[in-house]
Design goal:
This is Glucose-6-phosphate isomerase. The protein is α/β, with parallel strands linked by helices. The protein has helices at residues 2-16, 43-65, 91-100, 117-127, 146-161, 179-187, 208-216, 221-234, 244-254, 273-285, 315-320, 350-367, 382-402, 411-438, 448-454, 461-472, 499-503, and strands at residues 80-84, 108-112, 134-140, 170-175, 191-195, 260-265, 301-303, 325-332, 343-345, 348-349, 372-377, 446-447, 478-481, 491-494. Helix 3 (91-100) packs parallel to helix 7 (208-216) and helix 4 (117-127) packs across helix 5. The structure holds 6-O-phosphono-beta-D-fructofuranose (F6P).
């Protein structure tokens, strides 16, 4: 493997110097500069990074100290953060909050990371009167992701209904001049922080995306950056056996007949690490074509929660069942902060049990020829979390070089987004057809075949059935009579005719 690693190291060196490492999108890949701005290929980018860090530190200090206040909160200061974002604009902040937020943070954080109305309602309801002291951070690199836009619109509605001025409590993190940036600027939001073209969503935790929410929770973000920076330095050696990320990528390569990567941190606070890695690894490595255009269908499937909890869920299958995986144990040496430990039986602490479970599971797997990797950190601190993120970011990049794919684009995601748009367009046509039939006198109930025919979408009849079932279940003025279980029996019409839509 040595020559291939030397090629991967060279590619990484070029990437760090500002090469167009994401060729399809014509982009540089600069997340390593975030923790060492001196590496940035020019002084303009270096200053952008430094100024953004300085600005967000000042902003978070002012919010935490109460210098920046919400306009109409009885507490007189911000007490909550509501983060609206999805994918790379949520997973890092969620992981870091779970891993590092103190028990009583200066601001507590909540997330809206979906376009599920009930989920959004739940988050807003949980805030209750504290909405008045909630700082809403809307995070979207592109500034146009529909789920995030919907979350924003829902939150803004809640603010209006509570008689609050959203702009005075809203912060945008997005690329300059994106739709979100323009909205925030025109509406005069409290603050805006930039996302950079050369930082991908899934590697954005150490940009404003991850750093601002972390700082507001009282997490030492400079330590996170230091951890990432030190890890990057260790990963720059071209001596394979001394390079942690290269060794990790080598293990993945060695195990790549087993495409399932089970990540098991034995530490509750690292529960969301595997969820975070799911995007980082799968969106980066899961590719149809290699860089030469050959179909390769690459991928590593990441899952896992935490040990020893998962031992009582699926470890049975790992030990005895289908052998299509390798496990990564994340071992944390420090059980508790110093001075808090006690022996619950002579010579044994609670943490000793956790340790025993990890080692026992590892041995039990090994005895049945199931291989594993162990990543050990001394304790969960901002520095070690920064280092873990740095380790996996670099391992993904190196692995991508080994299998000759572009780790930094996500063409497959676009297909789903486009298809979702087509479903919503079809829904509008269905509504128009139903409206026309429902405006007749007498109303003309239609079968699904008739709806599909009039929509000129006979091939989409199943989707039309789904659209109608969904709308009928949601008080949308659609009346569907018949038996859901036998779609041919269904007849549909609207409860009222919308004359404007008919002629508009
Ligand atoms: O930050 P944005 O532009 O809203 O995108 C959110 C996420 O959507 C994706 O583009 C596709 O899932 C991710 O790569 C990204 O992290």
């Amino acid at each position: 493997m040595e020559p291939r690693f030397q090629a991967a190291f060279k590619a990484m060196e070029e990437l760090e110097k500002g090469a167009i490492a994401n060729p399809d999108e014509g982009r540089m890949v600069g997340h390593y500069w975030l923790r060492n701005p001196k590496l940035a290929p020019n002084s303009f980018l270096r200053l952008q990074i430094e100024n953004t860090l300085e600005a967000l530190l000042k902003f978070s200090n002012d919010v935490v100290s109460g210098k920046i206040k919400p306009p109409s909160s009885p507490e007189g200061r911000f007490t909550q953060v509501l983060s609206v974002g999805i994918g790379g604009s949520a997973l890092g902040p969620q992981f870091v909050a779970e891993a590092l937020a103190p028990d009583n943070p200066p601001l507590k954080i909540r997330f809206i990371d979906n376009t599920d109305p009930a989920g959004i309602d739940h988050q807003i309801a949980q805030l209750g009167p504290e909405l008045a002291s909630t700082l809403v951070i809307v995070i979207s690199k592109s500034g146009g992701t529909p789920e995030t836009r919907n979350g924003l619109l829902e939150v803004q509605k809640a603010f209006r209904e509570a008689g609050l001025n959203f702009a005075k409590q809203g912060v945008a993190i997005t690329q300059e001049k994106s739709l979100l940036d323009n909205t925030a600027r025109i509406e005069g939001w409290l603050a805006r922080f930039p996302m950079f073209d050369w930082v991908g969503g899934r590697t954005s935790e150490m940009s404003a995306v991850g750093l601002l929410p972390a700082a507001l929770q009282g997490i030492d973000i400079k330590e996170m950056l230091t951890g990432g920076h030190l890890m990057d330095e260790a990963n720059r050696t071209t001596v394979l056996r001394n390079n942690p990320a290269a060794l990790l990528a080598l293990c993945w390569y060695w195990a790549s007949d087993c495409v399932d990567m089970v990540v098991l941190p034995y530490k509750d606070s690292l529960l969301l690490f595997s969820r975070y890695l799911q995007q980082l690894v799968m969106e980066s490595i899961g590719k149809e074509f290699d860089l030469n255009g050959n179909r390769v269908n690459q991928g590593l499937t990441v899952y896992g929660n935490k040990g020893s909890t998962d031992q009582h869920a699926y470890i049975q299958q790992l030990r005895d069942g289908v052998h299509n995986f390798f496990v990564t144990f994340i071992e944390v040496l420090r059980d508790r902060p110093p001075g808090h430990d006690w022996e619950l039986e002579p010579g044994v602490t609670c943490g000793d049990y956790l340790f025993g479970m990890l080692q026992g599971t590892r041995s039990a797997l090994y005895s049945n020829e199931r291989e594993s990797i162990t990543v050990t950190v001394e304790e969960v601190t901002p520095r070690s979390v920064g280092a873990l993120i740095g380790l996996y970011e670099r391992a993904v990049g190196i692995y991508a070089s080994l299998v000759n794919i572009n780790a930094y684009h996500q063409p497959g995601v676009e297909a789903g987004k486009k298809a979702a748009g087509e479903v919503l367009a079809l829904q509008k046509r269905v509504l128009a057809v139903l409206n026309e039939a429902s405006c007749k006198d007498p109303v003309e109930p239609l079968t699904l075949e008739e709806v599909a025919d009039r929509c000129h979408a006979t091939e989409d009849i199943e989707m039309i059935y789904k659209i109608i079932a969904h709308m009928a279940a949601n008080d949308r003025a659609i009346i569907a009579e018949g038996n859901c279980g036998s779609p041919r029996s269904i007849k549909v019409f609207l409860g009222e005719c919308n004359v404007d839509a008919l002629y508009g």
